[in-house]
Amino acid sequence: MIYLTQLIYIIEGQEGALDEFESIAIPIIRKHNGELVLRIRPGKDSLIEGIAELPYEVHIVSFPSQKDFDNFAIDEERKASIHLKEKAIRDVVLYQGVLL
C-alpha cells in the first residue's frame, strides 16, 4: 500500500476550477483501486507552528500498489481534465510513503 500526501496551493480566484477538477479526479482514483483517505481545507486557526505557507487543501490518497497509482496518473479521462488542474493550481508538494 502506498500513501500520497499533497499540499495544494491554488491560484487566487480559481477555487471553482479546482472543485471541477476534483469532481472528475476523485472517481478516477476509485477506478484505479485507490481511496481518498482525507481531503482537508486547513484554516489559519488550525496552524500550531511552522514556517511554510498554509496550503489551500491537503489530500491523502492511498493505492494498493505503485502500478495502480501509475494507471491513475495516465488515465485518459484524467488527462483530458488536466487543463482544469493547471488553471487552478499554483504549486503542489507531494510526499509519498508507506504504512509502517
Mean model confidence by pLDDT: 95
* Number of helical segments with 4 or more residues: 4
The strand count comes to 4
Helix content: 25-40%
> What structural class do the secondary elements suggest?
alpha+beta
Q: Which consecutive residue ranges, at least 5 long each, have pLDDT under 50?
A: none
The CATH top-level class label? Alpha Beta
Number of discrete domains: 1
- What is the H-and-E element order? EHEEHHHE
Spatial ordering of strands, largest sheet = 2-3-1-4
CATH architecture: 2-Layer Sandwich
CATH topology: Alpha-Beta Plaits
Shape: globular
The major beta sheet can be summarized as:
4 strands, antiparallel
Beta-strand percent range? 25-35%
Distance between the termini: 10 Å
What is the C-alpha radius of gyration, as a whole number of Å? Answer: 14 Å
Task: Describe this protein's structure.
- This is DUF1330 domain-containing protein.
- It comes from SAR86 cluster bacterium.
- The structure is a single chain.
- The protein is an alpha+beta fold.
- It has four helices and four strands.
- The protein has helices spanning 15-31, 66-73, 76-80, 82-88; strands at 2-10, 35-40, 57-63, 89-98.
Summarize the structure.
This protein has 4 helices and 4 strands, in the order βαββαααβ.
Q: What is the strand and helix layout of this fold?
A:
Elements: E1 2-10, H1 15-31, E2 35-40, E3 57-63, H2 66-73, H3 76-80, H4 82-88, E4 89-98
Antiparallel strand pairs: 1-3, 1-4, 2-3
